[in-house]
Write a structure and sequence with these properties.
The chain is α+β, with helices and mostly antiparallel strands. It has one domain. Strands 1-2-3-4 form a 4-stranded antiparallel β-sheet. Strand 3 and strand 4 form a beta hairpin. 1% of the residues are buried. The mean pLDDT is 89.
């Protein structure tokens, strides 16, 4: 990963210590990590995989995860 690329988390995380952070990787994929574990594991997805997942989020398919 390039040093100049920064991680981003949702503004909704304001006040929470643990959040999911994302960033574009040099290979064009998107990395996800736990903000409390900056040196821990990262999960990597292609843009296509992320687009399909976000479409499911928009449809409410994963609402069960937060209830």
């Amino acid at each position: 990963m390039s040093e100049g690329m920064s991680w981003q988390k949702s503004a909704a995380c304001n006040g929470y210590e643990a959040c999911v952070e994302v960033r574009r990787l040099e290979n064009g994929n998107v990395g996800f990590r736990n903000s409390l574990l900056p040196d821990g594991p990262m999960v990597e997805f292609t843009s296509a995989e992320l687009a399909v997942f976000l479409e499911g989020v928009d449809r409410g398919e994963f609402d069960w995860m937060t209830s």
